[in-house]
Specification:
18 helices; 423 residues; three-stranded antiparallel beta sheet; 2 domains; mainly alpha
């Protein structure tokens, strides 16, 4: 009887995805060991060191994965909004009941054990989105539904940014826009988002007066190429006014940012002279570490930049530096390819779902992982702002590993149920 129950738990599980997960977690653990290697405490299972603690996080993550697989798949659809509400409440409470870590009060501490609820908000939001959008009466193209959907994403984003000052984790929620696009959101929203980003960057690089003139000229040119009626003129005038408002708003917000936030933006955009001993230190040391690895790397545990702590946060946000220095271009490419293979596998699985809920949730998983991968690697090599988000399944930390594991294995469980749908 027990054998039949065990067999049913693992029935139709996508083992390719599980294998990719295991490979990434184990390689990540090896790199955490290399990043904070201590000759006096060289045993990888030493729980007084970060690599020993990560072993505990990995073991408990495997336990979480098993628990998720034995829970009935209908639980996730039935209690999606409840889970969303619970973690939303936890994120509202943590600034008042939690402890401050690195200038941000976003952690619940239980002795030496810490949990960051913002990490778990990602899978909770994904469940709520899947629940809402899978309703047969919901069409995302309707403005009302679009507004509700954006609120499901925007409320956690605002809470995490405003109450916890966790900019990196807050920005991750914008990744769900790719899920919405797959479900029928107009491409115009993506285009407007892209133009808004371009306008934001230009507002920081160009004098506002010159930018206002450019916007006015572009609007004037647009008038020449459209049918000049009241509606079109109103649209062009509205777009021009909104663009000017965004330019002015960007400058105002920039002036009111904290010093370290303005510095990070300046470093990314190359504004002014960057002090490599201060604001430019992290990215510069990261580039040095990766560049010193060459094609094949210096060898495992032979990285001098990471071993002697030249790279800050080398076991968390900048763990990709360890890969680049010790494994070189080849090793870095292998890690990125493994991450991309997992994301592509998830997209493949999402497309074969018979349940809209499972498909939407799957695309949410892929979107979050892709955002983390591109931003983490991008900030390490100086192509993205340093906003402090982990590399999926690689970076040190229990909350991030647990949240990624829960995010992924809920989808693996949903996927295993796909053949029973519509029977």
């Amino acid at each position: 009887m027990r054998q039949k129950e065990a067999a049913s738990i693992f029935h139709n599980i996508d083992w390719v995805t599980v294998l990719l997960y295991l490979v990434l977690v184990i390689i990540g653990w090896m790199n955490i060991y290399a990043a904070v290697y201590n000759e006096e405490h060289h045993v990888i299972t030493d729980t007084t060191q970060k690599y020993g603690k990560q072993m505990i996080w990995i073991t408990t993550s495997f336990l979480l994965a098993f628990i998720i697989l034995i829970i009935d798949e209908n639980f996730y659809t039935a209690f999606a909004y409840v889970i969303f509400g619970i973690f939303l409440a936890a994120n509202i409470a943590v600034p008042y009941l939690g402890r401050e870590v690195k200038g941000s009060r976003s952690w619940f501490r239980f002795g030496d054990f810490g949990v960051q609820p913002a990490e778990f908000m990602k899978f909770a939001t994904n469940l709520a989105l899947a629940k809402f959008l899978s309703n047969q009466n919901i069409k995302i193209a309707d403005y009302k539904n679009t507004f509700i959907t954006l609120m499901l994403i925007g409320i956690p984003l605002i809470i995490i940014k405003v109450l916890q000052d966790e900019t990196g984790l807050a920005i991750v929620f914008t990744a769900f826009i790719f899920t919405l696009y797959r479900e029928g959101l107009s491409v115009n929203y993506l285009l407007l988002g892209f133009l808004a980003i371009v306008l934001f960057i230009l507002a920081l690089l160009i004098n506002n007066l010159y930018l206002f003139i450019i916007i006015a000229v572009l609007c004037s040119i647009a008038v020449l190429f459209v049918k000049r009626n009241r509606k079109n003129l109103f649209i062009i005038a509205s777009v021009g006014l909104i663009a000017c408002g965004m330019v002015k708003g960007t400058s105002t917000v920039y002036k009111h940012l904290e010093d370290h936030q303005r510095i990070r933006i300046d470093v990314l955009l190359g504004r002014g002279t960057v002090d490599l001993k201060k604001e430019g230190y992290n990215v510069n040391q990261a580039k040095i570490a990766i560049g010193s690895g060459g094609f094949l790397g210096k060898g495992y545990l032979e990285g001098t930049q990471t071993k002697y702590d030249f790279v800050p946060e080398q076991d968390t946000d900048f763990i990709f530096c360890t890969v680049g220095e010790e494994w070189g271009f080849v090793g870095s490419t292998i890690v990125i390819v493994l991450e991309l293979l997992l994301i592509l596998r998830i997209i493949f699985m999402a497309e074969r779902q018979r349940s809209p809920f499972s498909r939407i949730y799957g695309y949410g998983v892929a979107s979050v992982l892709f955002f983390h991968l591109t931003i983490n690697v991008g900030m390490t090599i100086g192509l993205a702002p340093v906003i402090g988000i982990p590399l999926p399944f690689f970076s040190y930390g229990g909350s991030s590993l647990w949240s990624f594991t829960i995010l992924l294995f809920i989808f693996i469980k949903l996927d295993s149920h796909r053949l029973q749908i519509l029977r």
